[in-house]
Amino acid sequence: MGENAISGNLKNLTIDTKDSETLVVCFGEMLIDFVPTVGGVSLAEAPAFKKAPGGAPANVAVGVSRLGGSSAFIGKVGDDEFGRMLADILRLNNVDNSGMRFDHNARTALAFVTLRADGEREFLFFRHPSADMLLLESELDKNLIQKAKIFHYGSISLIEEPCRSTQLAAMKIAKASGSLLSYDPNLRLPLWPSEDAARKEIMSIWNFADVIKISEDEITFLTGGDDPYDDDVVLQKLFHPNLKLLVVSEGPNGCRYYTQEFKGRVSGVKVKPVDTTGAGDAFVSGLLNSLASDLTILKDEKKLREALLFANACGAITVTERGAIPAMPSMDAVQNLLSSSSSPSPRS
């Protein structure tokens, strides 16, 4: 699988997927984040930067693997030092990276990210174009996609061709193979040509997904300013007939959930935050790892609440350490937090 995708390219290694029956395949961008060595400053004020692996779909793939699950990543990086570093990071984290491709002409994407003193995140992206935007449909590892129990993706790959068409093709392959389609829009407005373009493209694939995770800010953006806490807004504007689960993440406050049969809220797990980077991705990886093992969770509210409390704990642990991939928790860490936490047991 994928061994001869790039002739003579030893950077592209297949990790034996431990159990293809529970495989989570993540599609999209992987890049290098440059983060200031001190907190609470603007990018211009930062004295120096430290590099870290980034990209939401890749974070989720590592998160699933860290929890003991089986995961793979599909995407494109540059045939450069950073691209090779990212492929190695996936391999070292037991993520099947055989679906990665290396572009000889475009560079691996870079992003400078800071959390300013006022609490706002500031982004500066270098993608003109970057390799992740150039993945072709012909470069897809179709066999890997067809093995997915869950196929997970975001919206950043929709910004430019050819990657937009490639993502749509990958989604169709996964759907035809019986995979559960999972969508986290992960809105990054600075990357889009306009707010209208972002809203239109993010919603263009909305009805394909079986599971969607969104934030409060994304509800406000996608609905044109409606109240993100209003159940009627969520159900009328964002819940579609084929959707099995819509989750609204509320950071430290936990999450809300909506299915065809029931809706509710699960409390967050209290911790002392250090860095919120990757918390949403850790939450998604916790939820998808549970679903990959047991899809009946979607029909059983008690099981779903337990899975969402587990996902909340994954996100909570991640904010206690710096970075996304380094902070993704192990199963033991999550279970220890839940057993020591004062959070109420999930109940209807």
From TrEMBL:
Belongs to the carbohydrate kinase PfkB family. This is fructokinase. It comes from Camelina sativa. Residues 22-330 form the Carbohydrate kinase PfkB domain. The gene is LOC104726718. SUPFAM superfamilies: Ribokinase-like. The lineage of its organism: Eukaryota, Viridiplantae, Streptophyta, Embryophyta, Tracheophyta. May play an important role in maintaining the flux of carbon towards starch formation. Keywords: Kinase, Transferase. Pfam families: PfkB. It is an enzyme of class 2 (transferase).
